[in-house]
UniProtKB/TrEMBL annotation:
Keywords: Amino-acid biosynthesis, Aminotransferase, Proline biosynthesis, Pyridoxal phosphate, Transferase. Pathway: Amino-acid biosynthesis; L-proline biosynthesis; L-glutamate 5-semialdehyde from L-ornithine: step 1/1. This is ornithine aminotransferase. The gene is rocD. Its cofactor is pyridoxal 5'-phosphate. SUPFAM superfamilies: PLP-dependent transferases. It is an enzyme of class 2 (transferase).
Length: 399
């Protein structure tokens, strides 16, 4: 079968919740993927930053295969010999006391919301069903009914109500708005350190520091959603590290498994996560031994291959080169590490299609933004290769 036939299959049988770039990927290795015709592409999306460690990393695959031959799923009705080791490693790496494993990013954010509400009722003394969580305009947290309830994208929610109450929206990057929005019922502020899906929006310097101070002063939990920005993507282990702040809770997902399996987690100290009692929360697959073994290897790769430093160094080089493109069609180049957004003066999709033709895979976000977020394993030479192709495409306009 050729690409057009595969695309036709999707058209017929798959609910149209996406509008994919027309490329049918058959295999991947490191920063590269190959389509069914054998054409090679430089992956500049990394599955929305899930494949930070590169496609099909041999060490992660090895861990997956060997664990598959032992046991894959036990459920949390029993203990297994992988989950504790995984979460110890994750807590030691990030400096938190406890973790709660889930599967998808959306589930991690849902879990953080439940934890914050529970903390509010049991510890802060908020009256039942009165807890408020403050969120930001332009947020993205996933697609469950509760998470879309506080989205500012009309399409995400207009036909999917009734919506979950208990959220208040303020502008992103404005710490004074946070201070003003807090009430005695506020239990948490949920924020992305850089808004990824929102268009690679980088808040003003010092924002996260102010946020941490305001939350601490008001006994409000500071929850950082690092599902996209975490695990080296922005040139620090956590994006919050750039400002030296330590949120009360952190959500991780995506690259936690190197893209091999859905693995997510919520991190916090005992004073929050220690409040959960048996029966309060759960997941059949959360913390399963296969997921845990894969995540252990994915974290090992991140550390042993120095991918956080690499992201910072190569990201600075890539961003520098993108900023030097002379084009009337580029409004702004922004980001941190290897999470880079190029805002165009018109729709980004035609640029992404041209880039695809030139062997570079990107996906437009928020209309006019081309996101460049390659796997962290890329080299300077690969960036040079990509820039030879990116530069002429972003210099020539599309209507
Ligand atoms: C992708 C993403 C999520 C949701 O993750 P899923 O695995 O798609 O459910 C949540 N928050 C942020 C910031 C994300 O980028």
């Amino acid at each position: 079968m050729n690409s057009q036939q595969y695309i036709a299959l999707d058209e017929s049988y798959v609910a149209h919740t996406y509008n994919p770039i027309e490329v049918v990927i058959e295999r991947g290795e490191g920063a590269w993927v190959y389509d069914v015709e054998g054409k090679r592409y430089f992956d500049c999306l990394s599955a929305y930053s899930a494949v930070n460690q590169g496609h099909c990393h041999p060490r992660i695959l090895e861990a997956a295969v060997s664990q598959m031959h032992r046991v894959t799923l036990t459920s949390r009705a029993f203990f297994n010999d992988q989950m504790g080791l995984f979460l110890k490693q994750l807590c030691e790496l990030t400096g938190y006391e406890m973790a709660l494993p889930m599967n998808t990013g959306a589930e991690a954010v849902e879990t953080a919301i439940k934890a914050a509400r529970m903390w509010g009722y049991r510890m802060k003394g908020v009256a039942h069903d009165q807890a408020e969580i403050i969120v930001c305009e332009g947020n993205f947290a996933g697609r469950t009914t509760t998470l879309i309830s506080f989205s500012s994208e009309e399409q995400y929610k207009e036909d999917f109500g009734p919506l979950t109450p208990g959220f208040k929206t303020i502008p992103y990057g404005d710490h004074e708005a946070l201070a003003e929005a807090i009430t005695p019922n506020t239990v948490a502020f949920l924020v992305e350190p850089i808004q990824g899906e929102g268009g690679v929006i980088v808040p003003p310097a010092g924002y996260l520091k102010h946020v941490a101070e305001i939350c601490a002063a008001n006994n409000v939990l500071f929850i950082a959603d690092e599902i996209q920005t975490g695990l080296g993507r922005t040139g620090a282990l956590l994006c919050c590290d750039h400002e030296g702040v330590r949120p009360d809770m952190v959500t991780l997902g995506k690259a936690l498994s190197g893209g091999v399996y859905p693995v997510s987690a919520v991190l916090a100290d005992r004073r929050v996560l220690g409040l959960f009692r048996p029966g309060d929360h759960g997941s059949t697959f959360g913390g399963n031994p296969l997921a845990s073994a894969i995540a252990r290897a994915a974290l090992d790769v991140l550390v042993d291959e120095g991918l956080v430093d690499r992201s910072r160094e190569i990201g600075a080089y890539f961003m520098g080169r993108l900023k030097r493109i002379e084009s009337d069609h580029i409004e702004e180049v922004r980001g941190k590490g290897l999470l880079i957004g190029v805002e165009m003066s018109s729709l980004a999709r035609p640029y992404c299609d041209s880039l695809r033709d030139a062997g570079i895979l990107c996906k437009d976000t928020h209309g006019t933004i081309v996101r460049f977020a390659p796997p962290l394993v890329i080299s300077k030479e690969e960036i040079d290769w990509a820039m030879e192709r990116i530069e002429p495409i972003l210099s020539n306009g599309h209507q």
